[in-house]
Specification:
This protein has 512 residues and is an alpha+beta fold. It is 27% helix and 30% strand. The strands form nine sheets. Strands 3, 4, 10, 11, 12, 13, 21 and 22 form an eight-stranded mixed beta sheet that branches. Strands 16-17-18-15-19 form a five-stranded antiparallel beta sheet, covered by helices on one side. The relative contact order is 0.13. The structure holds flavin-adenine dinucleotide. Flavin-adenine dinucleotide is lined by residues 30-36, 53-56, 65-67, 120, 143-144, 172-174, 178, 198, 273, 292-293, 300, 303-307, 309.
Length: 512
């Protein structure tokens, strides 16, 4: 398909693909929020020519939105050598909230055994800096309006009529994704039952800080960095779904709940969220893919949306790069849906339960009390924390060693004369075959450069979240997203199959 010709869009409209000299990239990402930025970084690391189209003129974000990063997300950032950039800006909390209790996370076997409180604004800014260092092209202040795909690629039309061409288009364009709608992908789920107002403003009389409950729900007045400001979250008396609540609504509800509006004024953010839950029925339609909020939305309880968006991006990035570079066939992209769809489905389920537990009628409160009692029992605590932190993810990559399908632990290892971390070898987002049995203690390049081989001695025991201690594998094949594709002895047939399945390589390619 050539730009400059008239084509039929997926909604049936006819439009002019703008410009005679189309800008071409190997991959285009619609949306430069957290998911789009992370994906762009992953693709750039793999040497793919990727561009982001972002509606916003700058990375600045009104309001706080996400409040931080969970344990697995921090590990994922460590896998790229980025962890300290985020950790140095945030506050560490060794607890995870569940209903009305705080669950201890300090005994989880990870270097990052805490939740990192860090506003979305700072998360996005830090990701944007990384992406800029990697030389990603970011088209700001323009929108993806529509697109057309065929067997060879995707023509993308921006709202100013100009066009771009790419082999693949990824919709990281948030809950109202134009890409998802253009691809005709169903966004199935549950209509809202409850709404909340959220605002940030200055106060004149000291607010009643903390969390309150009544029969209608939960209310929170939180301190902000600027001591003259308050963050307000108010359960609404009845469900409202409009996007543009007024400050009058916030002030009136404060008076209804607290008997005073604390003289709040000069709002910097007013928004409304609901417990609407939806998930894309398919994360891929041929050359178009979805990630982050474009693929799944749910209420913010448990603070998981941004976190699973970043992990979607890390799952998809290396796969898309391998397909674009001709290393793998397009069917590799179907594993993205197979692996990530169930993860978000679980988050939808958990947040629906969180909302149900917030109900304040006597029977719901009785249920909530029982759930709080159960949640602190060790097995339940570990299960709940593993799910919410992302550390419990296990992809269905086959049977065998308990590591298979799980994330590689961030383990201290001896490589040559140096003590390093397993994650040091994932910084460049390439597959790694760790050889823990040969005792050679060095990093070696494979013949094809497809898979890096690292011969190392583990300096720590293997301890998996929830599972507990497991036997050290003789060797482990780790995907660029940090998940173990195979673990066992180097001569096993399974290694050959895993190398071919995931990286189009064979054991001979990784010969020492
Ligand atoms: C009140 C609230 C509290 C939350 N709290 C948490 C929390 O504590 N923890 C957590 O993990 N998550 C939380 N979330 C969710 C989190 O904010 C989202 O999950 C996250 O922002 C999703 O990132 P994304 O990049 O997928 O989408 P978005 O952040 O929505 O980014 C999409 C980007 O695409 C751009 N865009 C949209 N359409 C187009 C287009 N057509 N062309 C070009 N660009 C386009 C937008 O400008 C935007 O920059 C919260 C959300 C809300 C509303």
């Amino acid at each position: 398909m050539t730009l400059g010709t008239k084509v039929d869009a997926s909604d049936g409209a006819t439009f002019e693909l703008g410009g005679t000299a189309a800008r071409t990239h190997q991959a285009i990402i619609a949306g430069g929020g957290p998911t789009g930025l992370m994906l762009a970084g992953e693709l750039a690391l793999a040497g793919v020519d990727v561009a982001i189209i972002e509606r916003r003129e700058s990375q600045d974000l009104a309001g706080m939105r996400a409040g931080g990063l969970h344990m697995r997300t921090l590990e994922v950032l460590d896998q790229r050598g980025l962890g300290e950039r985020f950790v140095s800006q945030g506050q560490r909390h060794q607890v995870a909230p569940f209903h009305e209790v705080l669950l201890d996370v300090s005994d989880f076997p990870t270097r990052r055994n805490y939740f990192l409180a860090l506003p979305q604004n700072q998360i996005e800014r830090t990701l944007a800096e990384w992406v800029e260092e990697l030389g990603v092209r970011l088209y700001r202040g323009c929108e993806v309006a529509r697109f057309v795909q065929d067997d060879h690629g995707v023509d993308v039309v921006l709202s100013d009529g100009s066009g771009l061409h790419a082999s693949f288009l990824v919709g990281c364009d948030g809950s109202r994704s134009v890409v998802r709608k253009g691809a005709g992908i169903e966004f199935a789920g549950w209509e809202p039952t409850k709404s909340w107002l959220i605002a940030e403003a200055r106060w004149a009389q000291e607010p009643k800080w903390g969390v309150e409950h009544d029969l209608h729900g939960t209310y929170a007045l939180g301190k902000m960095d600027d001591p003259g400001q308050v963050r307000i979250v108010l359960a609404e008396r009845e469900l409202k779904t409009g996007d543009d609540p007024t400050f009058d609504e916030v002030q009136s509800l404060l008076v209804e709940v607290y008997g005073a509006d604390f003289g709040v004024h000069t709002p910097t953010w007013i928004s409304r969220f609901t417990d609407r839950c939806r998930q894309a029925a398919a994360y891929r339609d041929r050359r178009v893919l979805l990630a982050g909020d474009a693929a799944h939305i749910h209420p913010p309880m448990g603070g998981q949306g941004l976190n699973i968006g970043l992990q979607d991006a890390v799952n998809l990035g290396w796969k898309l790069a391998q397909v674009i570079k001709g290393i793998s066939s397009e069917s590799l992209l179907d594993t993205y849906h197979a692996e990530r769809h169930p993860v978000a489905a679980l988050v939808l389920r958990n947040t629906m339960a969180d909302v149900a537990l917030q109900r304040r009628d006597p029977r719901s409160r009785a249920l909530g009390e029982i759930m709080s009692e159960l949640a602190v029992i060790d097995g339940a605590r570990k299960h709940l924390v593993a799910v919410r932190s992302g550390l419990g993810v296990r992809y269905d990559l086959g049977d065998g060693h308990p590591l298979v399908g799980r994330r590689l632990p961030d383990l201290r290892i001896q490589v040559g004369q140096t003590a390093q971390s397993t994650y040091d070898f994932l910084h460049d987002a390439r597959p790694v075959l760790f050889d823990f049995g040969s005792d050679l203690g060095q990093e070696r390049r494979s013949c094809t450069d497809a898979v890096k081989v690292v011969s190392a001695n583990a300096l720590q025991a293997w301890d998996l979240p929830v599972v507990g201690p497991v036997q050290s594998p003789e060797a482990a094949l780790v995907r660029p997203d940090g998940y173990v594709a195979w673990a066992g002895a180097l001569g096993d047939d399974g290694l050959e199959q895993a190398l071919q399945k995931w990286f189009g390589a064979s054991a001979a390619d990784t010969a020492h």
